[in-house]
Amino acid sequence: MFRKSYLSVLHTKSAQWISILLFPLTLQACGDVVADETQPASQYLQASSEHLTLQDSYQVENKFVGKVIAQQDANLGFEFAGIIKTLHVIEGQQVKKGQLLAELNTELLLIERNQLEAQLQQAEAEFDLIQANLSRLNSLSKRGFTSEQNIDELSSQKRVIAANIRSTSSGLDASQYRIDKSKLLAPFDGIISSRKIAQGEVVAAGSTAFRLLQTGASEVTVGVPASFIKQIKGKEHQLEIAGANYPATLLSMGNEVDTVTRTISLRFALADNSPVYNGQLAYLALSQAYQQPGYWIPLSAITDGVRGMWNIYTLDQDIAQRDLDDPTALAPALFQLKSTTVTVLHATATAAYVQGDLKSNQAYVNAGIHRFVPGQRVTLSHQQAFANKAAGDSVSENKI
């Protein structure tokens, strides 16, 4: 037991002495690799770079979502209850104004109308009889053969029958109105979006039978914050619907802020026969400028730093090197990488607008930064032109 423990301790101490002896050699070897400035330029990694261009401001394009709606969207139904006798249209069918859509059974209404017509004829006959009797009594009264009482009684009966005639005529008009309203007609040109009834079904008064969408020019409603209203007045607008842009004219603007979305409702008119559908999403693009100096750089130039910060690698030119294979030829210039902390003010899918300890026309690595570390020397493969096109690609969608 004692011998095993002694051997274990001896082995451990030997390993420690070997590590201590090898450590300076390792440091010397590493130092030789980093500090060797006489190595050929071909052994340095190549970095892709470009130069920073200072911008006074940046713009953010906001997209506000809306919905395509028909100019008129009506739920059609019968004014009176009844049984569906005939259906003349189906879903998706185009209809014209005044076209017959459906009919109710009118047998009971026709019976009631015949009854009222008979009552009217009876009342008219009684009226004619009283009128003739009253004429004879007036003739006899002039010769003194009848009393005033008889004349007054007939005159009163005449007025009663006249009132009955008017009442029956009104009943006939009401019956005819119910018969006319048993036919459902299209109030405007459109397309049948949905049908809610079937033949033989008993429907209640006012229940929806068809949904009719007006054809022709469509409209779009969009809600935008109050701060964007000044950009909208007196300008032509483009609305993006299903990936295509359509010119739109502002029709009306709300005068209060919605309590839920905190936006003001806008209503736009599209051109006639635009190939859009009711309920489609529409997007209104409005730009907003921020007056802050900074630089546009590609996202491929940014790497994460400590404590949630972002860094980029700037390039400081090093001394000129000579190629060991050809001492007379000047080797490509060497650049030393420096890690610089930046603040990202705005980012798009491809670029970012940053601030930091940067200078205009300063070179930086714009791609492949995962291959490098701060302090490393590199050569440049070629100058790539970023051309600040990121400023035009700045898009931030706000869906309200």
Describe the structure.
With 400 residues, this protein is α+β, with helices and mostly antiparallel strands. It folds into 4 domains: 39-57 and 292-397, conserved putative lor/sdh protein from methanococcus maripaludis s2 fold, CATH 2.40.420.20; 62-71 and 217-289, Efflux pump adaptor protein, beta barrel domain (Elongation Factor Tu (Ef-tu), domain 3, Beta Barrel), CATH 2.40.30; 76-104 and 184-215, OB fold (Dihydrolipoamide Acetyltransferase, E2P), CATH 2.40.50; 106-181, Helix Hairpins (Orthogonal Bundle), CATH 1.10.287. It has 4 helices and 24 strands. It has helices at residues 2-35, 107-143, 148-180, 229-232, and strands at residues 46-51, 54-55, 58-70, 73-77, 82-87, 94-95, 100-104, 183-185, 190-195, 202-203, 208-214, 218-224, 237-241, 244-253, 264-270, 281-290, 294-298, 303-304, 310-317, 335-347, 351-356, 363-367, 377-383, 395-397. The strands form 4 sheets. Strands 1, 2, 17, 18, 19, 20, 21, 22 and 23 form a 9-stranded mixed beta sheet that branches. A hairpin with a 3-residue loop joins strand 20 and strand 21 (351-356). It is rod-shaped and about 145 Å long. The model is unreliable at 1-38 and 383-400 (pLDDT under 50).
